[in-house]
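User: Reviewer 2 asked us to show a designed sequence for the structure in our supplementary figure. I'm pasting the structure tokens here. Could you produce the per-position amino acids so we can include them in the response letter?
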């Protein structure tokens, strides 16, 4: 069980740091005079929600509650990846500025998918 606790702590740290980066990106986007400002709000909501849902999951009242919160975090990570891709493809921000964040969001999706699958299979 210690191994799982360490992984949970690592993913919580990663999602917190990711949220910090999203906030900084939002602070840049909010000053834009185009769709970037609106997309930034969507990105802020989903990108900061990932870690918040994981925090709630660790205090889950049951295994089902834990899985539910992790699944919400996964959905938010997917949504965040979508907004990052949209910002890149519409050239609101350059690929250079977004590649690291997009890569991290992809990795978070993979990790959260694994957590949800493993949690569902453990009875």
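Assistant: Here is a per-position design you can include in the supplement:
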């Amino acid at each position: 069980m210690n191994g799982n606790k360490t992984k949970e702590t690592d993913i919580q740290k990663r999602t917190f740091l990711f949220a910090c980066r999203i906030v900084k990106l939002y602070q840049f986007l909010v000053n834009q005079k185009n769709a970037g400002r609106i997309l930034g709000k969507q990105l802020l909501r989903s990108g900061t929600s990932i870690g918040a849902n994981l925090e709630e999951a660790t205090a889950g009242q049951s295994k089902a509650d834990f899985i539910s919160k992790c699944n919400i975090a996964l959905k938010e990570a997917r949504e965040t990846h979508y907004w990052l891709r949209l910002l890149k493809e519409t050239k609101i921000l350059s690929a250079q500025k977004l590649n690291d964040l997009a890569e991290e969001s992809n990795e978070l999706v993979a990790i959260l998918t694994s957590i949800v699958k493993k949690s569902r299979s453990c009875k």
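For the response letter, you might also mention the following. Residues 2-29 form the longest helix (28 residues). The helical segments are 2-29, 35-58, 63-89, 95-121.
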